[in-house]
Design the sequence.
């Protein structure tokens, strides 16, 4: 055996023998303490002095006991009265106090050294005043008429100072009365409250749990780690954690609210993590599930009822604005069930250098859900309400980014990026109705781009076409820009395929800001595989003379158009350009054409024909 192995074996034996000796000594000490425990009651005065020294206040004890809790000798004081500094007035009372003794340290120092201190059955009253600060006082719950009286509250500062100067203090099976003078002032009672306080100068740590009365919920938990005056929110800074199970929100005597939204009633399960500073919540993260909510919102004249609202959220509140992030958001009302999504809303306050801004980002939502919600608010004016109610916008909105700002006496500034599918809406005034659109929009207040790549789409423009146009395929890259005098809209990638014709076109449309000026359209289109008998569906009858429409309806009775092209150049109000101020020209190759010129029937049999209509 090597010398290293020999020394290792000796060390291992020494450690084991040392541990065994310590256990034997500890067992002897515990046995001795068990023998002398009953005699400790004979030293009642000495123990009262010990408790008074430990608590920094004169203490009176009705009875006492001693027992061993594990390996910790514990002194138990029943019906404890703690007096104020003058020793003349009762500051607080508690049913029982337990003083754990640090056995080894007490032997070393040859005096009783407390290890921990637990209060059982303390009764406290907390009042929040109009200015936001808290008042703490000991009470007799059985004699509530003396509770919250001015003369009783004089000692509250001393009691609070005592509580929040203990290095570690446990409160068990306690009763707390809460009165909020900033709300309705009703008194709420919480029984079976358990709390642990840890204090280190200006740092205060608190954890508490309570099983709620049935009318208020099931369970509530709070944890705080703050610095400053814990009874004065204006001078407090730190972190707060709250947890509630099946909390009845309308039974707490307050209406929870944030950023103008207040809760009238409902049930909630929640976990909240917050940063507190400057007398406000600076950041709040949470996991919330709420049921049967009754909400009051500044944008709604009537309360809004929600069957279910669930999500993970984070609110960051700063001096220059706030940000709300919501993940895994679910929403259900009486008539709507929203798919799960996430969104982000950011508001930047304005100042002398810049305008206030709103930013909205979301992965997905259904346009019809938001439309129904908006119609319940007072946000839209009369015209906007009529638009939403008539058009009934619907569709899937994906990857939305929207920025909005407006300075006084200046036009609105915005930026929009969004992808959409199955977009639809009814016709409203001069705006055509659409359905089945899929595409993307990139736009701001001066320019934009619309890309469409849709199948089975429909265009309903009753002021232009007699019937809705149905497209088997719709491809477009449409752009627009405000040049200061007019809106210019153009596209060199427009393709429309229907059951009756295939069309590709380039266009430029100029819409003057001056209402007295007619829009100007420059369009070149090519088409093929046309069925002449259905041409009537594609005439822009809304800008054509009735006589021309009737003539075209009668004259083109049938045939197959192999290919052709169309040119339109002029102002819309000047069509059909009898004054020579524009051009409308159609050329096409056709076969099996059946034409009726002024009721004189002309038939082209199998021969191919090249026809031209020039107006």
Sequence:
């Amino acid at each position: 055996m090597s010398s290293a192995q020999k020394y290792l074996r000796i060390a291992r034996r020494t450690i084991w023998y040392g541990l065994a000796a310590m256990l034997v000594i500890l067992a002897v000490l515990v046995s001795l303490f068990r023998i002398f425990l009953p005699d400790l009651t004979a030293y009642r005065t000495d123990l009262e002095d010990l408790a008074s020294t430990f608590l920094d206040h004169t203490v009176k004890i009705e009875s006492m006991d001693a027992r061993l809790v594990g390996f910790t000798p514990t002194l138990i004081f029943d019906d404890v009265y703690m007096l104020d500094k003058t020793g003349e007035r009762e500051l607080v009372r508690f049913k029982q106090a337990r003083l754990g003794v640090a056995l080894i340290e007490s032997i070393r120092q040859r005096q009783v050294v407390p290890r921990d201190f637990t209060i059982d059955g303390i009764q406290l009253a907390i009042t929040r005043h109009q200015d936001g600060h808290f008042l703490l006082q000991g009470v007799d719950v059985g004699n509530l008429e003396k509770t919250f009286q001015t003369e009783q509250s004089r000692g509250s500062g001393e009691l609070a100072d005592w509580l929040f100067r203990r290095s570690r203090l446990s409160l068990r099976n306690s009763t707390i009365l809460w009165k909020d003078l900033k709300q309705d002032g009703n008194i709420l009672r919480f029984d079976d409250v358990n709390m642990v306080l840890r204090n280190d100068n200006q740092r205060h740590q608190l954890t508490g749990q309570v099983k709620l009365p049935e009318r208020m919920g099931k369970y509530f938990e709070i944890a705080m780690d703050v610095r400053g005056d814990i009874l004065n929110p204006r001078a407090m800074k730190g972190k707060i954690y709250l947890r509630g199970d099946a909390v009845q929100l309308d039974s707490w005597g307050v209406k929870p609210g944030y950023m103008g939204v207040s809760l009238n009633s409902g049930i909630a399960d929640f976990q909240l993590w917050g940063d507190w500073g400057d007398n406000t919540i600076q950041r709040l993260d949470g996991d919330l599930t709420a049921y049967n909510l009754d909400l009051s919102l500044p944008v709604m004249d009537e309360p809004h009822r929600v069957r279910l609202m669930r999500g993970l959220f984070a609110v960051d509140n700063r001096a220059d604005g706030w940000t709300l992030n919501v993940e895994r958001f679910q929403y259900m009302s009486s008539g709507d069930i929203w798919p799960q999504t996430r969104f982000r809303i950011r508001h930047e306050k304005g100042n002398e250098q810049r305008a206030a801004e709103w930013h909205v980002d979301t992965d997905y939502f259904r346009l019809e859900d938001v439309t129904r919600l908006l119609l319940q608010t007072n946000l839209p004016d009369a015209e906007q309400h009529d638009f939403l109610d008539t058009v009934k916008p619907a569709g899937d909105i994906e990857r939305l980014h929207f920025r909005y700002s407006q300075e006084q006496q200046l036009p609105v500034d915005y930026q929009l990026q969004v992808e959409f599918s199955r977009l639809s809406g009814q016709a409203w005034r001069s705006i055509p109705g659409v359905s089945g659109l899929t595409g993307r929009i990139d736009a701001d207040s001066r320019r934009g781009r619309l890309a469409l790549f849709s199948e089975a789409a429909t265009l309903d423009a009753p002021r232009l076409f007699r019937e809705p146009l149905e497209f088997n395929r719709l491809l477009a890259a449409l752009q627009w820009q405000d040049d200061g005098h007019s809106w210019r809209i153009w596209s060199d990638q427009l393709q429309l395929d229907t059951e009756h014709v295939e069309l590709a076109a380039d266009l430029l449309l100029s819409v003057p800001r001056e209402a007295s000026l007619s829009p100007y359209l420059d369009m070149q289109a090519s088409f093929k595989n046309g069925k002449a008998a259905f041409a009537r569906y594609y005439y822009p009858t809304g800008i054509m003379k009735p006589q021309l429409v009737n003539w075209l309806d009668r004259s083109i009775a049938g045939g197959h158009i192999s290919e052709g092209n169309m040119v339109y150049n002029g102002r819309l109000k000047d069509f059909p350009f009898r004054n020579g101020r524009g051009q409308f020209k159609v050329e096409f190759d056709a076969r099996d054409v059946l034409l009726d010129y002024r009721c004189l029937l002309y038939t082209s049999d199998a021969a191919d024909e090249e026809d031209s209509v020039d107006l």
User: Anything to note?
Assistant: The CA atoms of residues 5 and 11 lie 10 Å apart. The chain is about 15% helix and 55% strand.
